[in-house]
Amino acid sequence: MLPGRGPNGRAARLARLLGTRTSWTPVGDGEFFCPGCGGDRNYQRLTGQRRFALLGVPVLPRGETGPVVECAACRRHFGTDVLDHPTTTRFSAMLRDAVHTVALAVLAAGGTCSRAALETAAAGVRAAGFEDCTEEQLAALVDAVAADTGRFTGEPCAAGLAIELHEALDPLAPHLAAPGRESILLQGARIALADGPYTPAERDTLATVGAALTICADDVHRLLTAARTPS
Ligand SMILES: [Zn+2]
Question: CA distances (Å), 150 to each of 113, 142, 153, 227, in order?
């Protein structure tokens, strides 16, 4: 049978004449992590108008489609759930804030900060990306936190700090694999251990850190014990 003849050929010809065209309208833009080309890219958020097309000319509206997210670099389309993932830049900032907040919370739980604890904390915070962080800055922040929480509750590990920890860690936790979450807790443990064994307040704070990082209580206990044992 010659191509273009018979029932199949007729269907193919019809498909060429009739089809669905989608015209996309930009409804927003921003930056996202593109899973297609693997990096921080600009995107456009698009909604589509589907129309029946005759000879390539849109005729009848077929309703809305999308919205989709189009990568400015690779032009691929994705569901809008890709926007739930932070960009690399945003992720680094979240990580940096998390390490900084954990360091402050553990130092504040320790009461008066020893030099060793401050040095451990500042080194961790610098490594996480706040390159200018000094021991003095941390000490000043801890004093400010102590003055603040003392005013409200008079307790060393106050509700205010728990809220800070959850604000810094909750959004980060889903994007970190277990070793990443554990490493944040262990950094806190090392600060607590820099000036001797854990105090009850430090344990409380580290338990809050673990919970905010969605590490179960058993694992928190195991990690805190392991951190105490020199390797
Ligand atoms: Zn892309």
Answer: 16, 12, 5, 29
What is the per-residue pLDDT across 135-161, written as a single tens digit (0 to 9) for each?
A: 999 999 988 877 776 555 545 445 668
Q: Which residues surround ligand 1, an ion (CB under 5 A)?
A: 34, 36-37, 71, 73-74
E-strand spans in 72-119? 77-79
Strands (E) in the chain, as ranges, are: 18-34, 39-54, 57-71, 77-79
Has this prediction a pTM greater than 0.70? yes
Taking the centre of ligand 1 as the mean of its atom positions, its distance from the CA of residue 67, in whole angstroms, is 17
Q: How far apart are CA 157 and CA 146, in angstroms?
A: 9
CB-CB contact of 79 with 69 (8 Å): yes
